[in-house]
Amino acid sequence: MPVAIITGASKGLGRALAGALAARGWDLVLDARTPETLEETAVALKVYGTRVTALPGDVTDAGHRAGLVAAARRLGGVDLLVSNASALGAEPLVRLEELPTAGLRRALEVNVVAALGLVQEALPSLRAAPAGAVLTVGSDAAVEAYEMWGGYGASKAALNQLAAVLGVEEPGLRVWAVDPGDMATDLYAAAVPDDDGPRPDPVSVVPALLRLLDERPASGRYGAALLEGVR
């Protein structure tokens, strides 16, 4: 069975994608910071009969990243690496004049540095996989100037660039930077707690991600508008 590592997998888009892959028979290595929530997710997914390893921890910890890849190798390798874990930099979001530099560093460490570190750790296994792929979860804040989204958007813009260069440097892999669009997630609620408008469930994005895996288009950035037709 193919094996996927998914960070930020205890809820939201990470959990939704994990469920869809488990239903297809994928074995999974799941990461999140809250042990209880992650374990509950892992137990729920085991109903599909696949192997699910839950490793709580912080993706900024090099030892934790090594543990995720080691767990995947024990299951057979790494076919797919999904960098979904994210940090906002401030909760709720604030204007740049108020953004703590420590918060910006945290966003960069989680959203960019840790994502690269995990790729570096997993590259030998990804190269050895029959159809190795990396999927980074981005945001339209990486390319649009939204008030108060500057720090988070800057980190996601950097992540997009890393994914773009990785796709060039690793032509044997597929590297997709995906902007899933607005979703009803805890991350968005923490970012803008006063905005209670309706948003799509993360589950609605999953068919688009599965299409990437099925059709394996060229490495590149795939925005919400491009994915809309398969929701």
TrEMBL record:
Family note: Belongs to the short-chain dehydrogenases/reductases (SDR) family.
Alphabetical list of SUPFAM superfamilies matching this protein: NAD(P)-binding Rossmann-fold domains
Key word Oxidoreductase present: yes
Pfam families for this protein: adh_short
Organism: Streptomyces marokkonensis
Annotated protein name in UniProt: SDR family oxidoreductase
Keywords linked to the UniProt accession: Oxidoreductase
